[in-house]
Amino acid sequence: MLLEKAKSAVLMALFAICVYLAGQFLLETSSISARAGSNAGNVQASVNIEDLLNPQGIQVSFGGGLYSGHFDSAFKNSLWASAKGQLRVALETSGIAEVGQTDWDAVVVQRGITFKMPFSMTVNQILMAVGSGVSREALGTTDFDVVLITAGESGSIYLGNRQEDRYIRFSTAKPEGTVAAVAAPAADLSVILSEIENAEGTVEYKRIEDIFSLREILEKPEEVYRENHIIEPIVTMPALDRVRVSNEFSLQTLSEEQERYYAYIAFGSRFDFVKRVREVDGSVVYLYGYGDRALRFGSEGRLEYVERFESSGESGEALGFKASMTMAVSELRKYGEFPEGLYLRHYTEVEQAPGVWVKTFQFGIRYKGLPVDLSGQSIPCAATVEITNDQITYLTKNYKQLQRSMPEPNPSGAIISMDKLIENHYELILNDYLMMNPEAEAVKEDFGFVYQILHDITEYELVYFLIQDNGVATYVPAWHLGIGSSHYYFDVYTGRLLQHLPEQAVN
After folding, report:
1. What one-character-per-residue DSSP string does 354-385 give?
2. Is residue 358, in this structure, part of any structural domain at all?
3. Partners of 346 in the beta sheet?
4. Can you tell me the distance from the alpha carbon of 455 to that of 484, in angstroms, rounded to the nearest whole number?
5. Which of 165, 213, 270, 385 is the S-S candidate for 328 at Cβ 3.0 to 4.6 Å?
């Protein structure tokens, strides 16, 4: 919703500017084409989309009720690299069977690894993420947001959709000729899991299901009870630094020559119909023709490109996911190097009109293995690319550059616990919960009601949250707490509420 409002505002502003400038002189640009032409090779770069399709979070189970959600990011990279081979073979060749809630609850507590995918992905999209060129069309468009691999000798693989309580298991029967390909990654995962378990920096977690004995309190006869597999730390967390960041570019330092170079990337070498204007807030806009295309350098450090969709005549057919993502990341790469930790965070596909499909790719950033949450910003992602059929119609990026790390003033201070956060903000959380569940008003004073709220927790993860204070941008370590469709972000040390999103899905 925020993205759509921002785009609408930009388009309206650009239309007004275009009318205003209709009679103005065109830019003197003969030298620009030569300057940009000599650098054209700098913006042509191949991108491996597999590098941008990876889990948003990883949870490991050591068995015996112990887990971890916070350990060295190098281990996270190793786990995913080792899991990809096993996933590739299983998803390409194995048969599947549906799994019930009870079976899923039983397998989650076994020794293994759970990969939280950045968005609900089809099996074909997961295959693409693990480097496979195979398509499993028989599985259709059913999507999943978690991948679970048990660490035993058989190494079973499960896919789950937590919101819909839908789970499938890939059979362990191995096709002829694939035994070695499966066995090696499975063995690697067990070794890495043992290394994580014994590493000094690994933080032990337990499920809130077990900490608060939720089943004993909430289970009802003749109803299938769904366990909550969200975990929270049970030991002291290591200190997490704040990080001062800055915009990738500043209008105070961006030269007109640099602006025009990027305008060449956007419009090509034909500058006969390009106009330049500076907006009231200092932002600079380059318009092509009668506003058919526009490039904007925002005062807030955001670059935006908008192109009118050619709805008649030359418009091609809608591209598939892989082709459109390849186009999206290649176009984004033209405007500069990708920052470390960039990944595809969210994807949507909508039929805007008969035969007109809009695919939106939203990219996020990780810092030290933790996702950077931008939900407090006007556009809550590091970059966005929209493709309408086979045409780039919108692109924006707002990367941040790391300036310096700022240790917590009181490093001995403990990171605040989840139950303390809920206690301190209970009235806010209660009001949101009753808005989502009006029927709960009648039982809010009953014993067990607060345990029902705990049972309905959907997210509890460490993130870095971007805050702006008097023009200064900082990554602040935060807890992201999700209860139903309400989301809260708290400073991990003070418990201060940084952001509140009532009844809103977080991408």
Report:
1. TTEEEEEEEEEEEETTEEEE-TTSSS-SSEEE
2. yes
3. 362
4. 10
5. 385
Cβ-proximal residues to 75 (8 Å cutoff; 6+ apart), any chain? 192, 195, 196, 199
> Confidence class of residue 334 from pLDDT cuts 50, 70 and 90?
very high
Q: Which residue carries 């259709």 as its tokens?
A: 140
Closest CA to 61 of 104, 105, 103, 114: 114
- Rounded to 5 degrees, φ, ψ at 57 are -150, 155
Q: pLDDT band for position 52 (50/70/90)?
A: very high
Domain of residue 428 covers: 418-501
Residue 231 lies in a domain: no
With tokens 């490039």, the residue in question is 295
Domain boundary among 145, 167, 200: 200
Pick the more confident residue, 479 or 299.
Answer: 479
> Domain for residue 182, yes or no?
yes
- Burial label for 407, CB within 10 Å (0-12, 13-18, 19+), is exposed
Look at the chain and report how many structural domains it folds into. Answer: 3
Neighbours of 180 (CB within 10 A): 9
Q: Tokens 């924006």 belong to which residue? A: 396
* Phi, psi of 440, rounded to the nearest 5 degrees: -75, -10
Q: What is the token pair recorded at 171?
A: 């059979």
Identify the bridge partners of residue 371 per DSSP, sorted by sequence position. 366
Comparing CA positions, the residue from 82, 323, 242, 284 lying closest to residue 275 is: 284
- How does pLDDT run across 137-196, given as a tens digit for each residue? 777 788 999 999 998 766 789 999 998 989 999 975 555 554 434 444 545 899 999 999
Place of tokens 């029927």: 439
350, burial (CB in 10 Å: exposed 0-12, middle 13-18, buried 19+): exposed
| Backbone dihedral region for residue 425 (phi beyond 0: left; psi -120 to 50: alpha; all else: beta) | alpha
Rounded Cα–Cα distance for residues 392 and 448 (Å): 52
Check whether residue 187 and residue 163 sit in a common domain.
yes
Report whether 163 contacts 30 (CB < 8 A).
Answer: no
Give a yes or no: residue 215 inside a domain. no
**DSSP at 225:** P
pLDDT digits (tens, 9 = 90+) for 420-436: 999 999 999 999 999 99
Residue 171's closest CA among 97, 276, 280, 75? 97
Residues 434 and 381 in one domain: no
Segments in 303-425 forming alpha helices (H): 321-333, 418-424
Q: Are residues 385 and 434 in the same domain?
A: no
The residues that bridge with 219 in the sheet, in sequence order, are none
